[in-house]
Amino acid sequence: MPSEPDVRTVLHAAVEAVGGTERPGQVTMAEAVRDALESGTHLLVQAGTGTGKSLGYLVPSLLRGERVVVATATLNLQHQLVERDIPALKEAARATMDEVPHHAVVKGRSNYACLHRVREGAPDDQGVLVEVPEGSLGAEVVELREWAEKAAADAAVGDRDSAPAHTDRAWRQVSVNHRECLGATRCAHALECFAERAREDARHADLVVTNHALLAIDAIDGVPMLPEYDAVVVDEAHELAARVTQAATDELDPAVIERAARRARPHAEGHEVDDLTDAADTLADVLSRVEPGRIDVPDEALADALAFVRDSARACLSSFPKEKAEGPVEPGGPDAGRQQARGMVDEVRQVAERMAVKAETEVLWLSESRNGPRLHVAPIDVSGRLRDKLFGEKTVVLTSATLTLGGGFDPLAASLGLDPGDDSWSAVDVGSPFDYGSQGMLYVARHLPPPGRDGLGDERIDEIAALVEAAGGRTLGLFSSRRAAEEAAEAIRPRLPDLDIWCQGDAQLPELARRFAEEPSTCLFGTLSLWQGIDLPGDTCQLVVIDRIPFPRPDDPLMSARQRLVEKRGGNGFMSVAAAHAALLLAQGTGRLIRRATDRGVVAILDPRLVTARYGSFLAASLPPMWRTTDRDVVLGALRRLDVPAAPA
């Protein structure tokens, strides 16, 4: 048995283990990743759908001999890695290597059940422990507690993905975030703790699977969440900047401040809790007079209100009695409630301080929620953080089916902090096993008017109806807004009564995807969550309709701030931000059509600007190389031919 097998040998065995077919692009990718890990050079790998990119990076990561972290954006991909690809790779390792590698999964603390909360109860808004809530919520919590106890007895994972079906509200009754956690040295249940066991397991693993947010917290914020490593593979890398931004975004509203004050009241001493409640009232009064949207410079009233919240929270923290210096918290003792109350107040303090300072590198904005106005603060640009904290410290491999925008890697690389022309990184496009030119047709409805602000309009509705009818259903409609998706569904249903037209919101997304897959004549219309990540291969999806180029809204606080920053630095804000954002989404959306080598169909973009506007060529160059046309009759004829059942052999 060879002790040092090469990449091709292990890759071949792993592909056989999953019953797949080895692709030339997969081999090219595996060797490129191996070379990057050995040389310490950052690598961008674009690997089209069907390439088998997961094994393309897992095999060289496994053979490296040192720990590699793999970070994904979605739970679906993480599940695929852990349940299918890594077990196949370990099966291959048994046949080709002296030692089978160990892998571990690390998630955020709130993704695991907390045995302290399961056994002691969750505190209400006053900090009083409640054993079981009333009604249907109580039944869910009881079921989750029983599941958690069994998981603890069986030494199982205890994470949310393995839990019985539940609501977010029920899960909060059996979990804690990192601020609420007592910590391993203070918790009486630490030896059984699911989160601590996962981290301990990771310390002995060759491969550690995590998500983009946890990677960002560990590498960029400097909060130790992962074991020591010096190389990371980022899958779904086109999402990295957005996920890092999301992880670094904070929110604050008066209700959160009031809740923190109520939780602090049983534990804090003096009038400071009353001051924090007053600060919440003051902020609520000020926000009632602020228009939703980006806040470039907080006015005096808002600045004073935020400073009042910050200072009141700081004083409230000081009024908590000193905790015992050492020893675990006794079950049922008061320290757990105090720790969690302190965590809530300290979070209010930190967020209010960040908003009060309002650095030039951050954007502050106000939104309307069901609970009233809410403030948000986020970094305008995360490329500097990524460059210094991730690329400056680790060897990074970035991979996705969509890394080239406008025909090149530079736009996305720049958004992640990699300078074009810098020799610290290289890029390779290993292609796709699909023949897009013969499998797919890209149709741009040039004859339609440019999209406006008053809905889809009669001409676009007529176009959608004609396309859907020619396809016999089998349509995934990707719309720029929920309103547009609903408008299309309501208009098409009476015109084509023999077809089932489902709209996002009619049921949960997994249920809608199941219905769509089971009945080929079904249509599914939806918004952003359908543009990427949903996998609908085969005859069920032979037409993808995109109503308009998905530019960000002009009033989007974060995108507009980024455009302005680029322009301030002398660049083209529209092309660097808005067009790049649209190109990425268009590439993801068109990628929903061809998922297997046998798939055939049409992507119809009902926005003539793709072929008439100056930026159209940049967007078009970001899309798969399908056969392209603006001839409506040609497309309708092709769809009708696809709808005709194949003659029996």
Automatic annotation (TrEMBL):
Primary enzyme class: isomerase
Superkingdom of the source species: Bacteria
Catalytic reaction annotation: ATP + H2O = ADP + phosphate + H(+)
GO biological process: nucleobase-containing compound metabolic process
Gene3D superfamilies hit by this protein: P-loop containing nucleotide triphosphate hydrolases (3.40.50.300)
UniProt domain Helicase ATP-binding: residue ranges: 12-291
EC number(s) on file: 5.6.2.3
Cofactor(s) essential for the protein: [4Fe-4S] cluster
Gene Ontology molecular functions: 5'-3' DNA helicase activity; ATP binding; hydrolase activity, acting on acid anhydrides, in phosphorus-containing anhydrides; nucleic acid binding
Region (Disordered): 321-341
InterPro entries: ATP-dep_Helicase_C, DEAD/DEAH_box_helicase_dom, DinG/Rad3-like, Helic_SF1/SF2_ATP-bd_DinG/Rad3, Helicase_ATP-bd, P-loop_NTPase
Pfam families linked to this entry: DEAD, Helicase_C_2
Keywords of this entry: ATP-binding, Helicase, Hydrolase, Nucleotide-binding
Similarity comment: family membership: Belongs to the helicase family. DinG subfamily.
Name of the protein in its database record: ATP-dependent helicase DinG
Organism: Aeromicrobium terrae
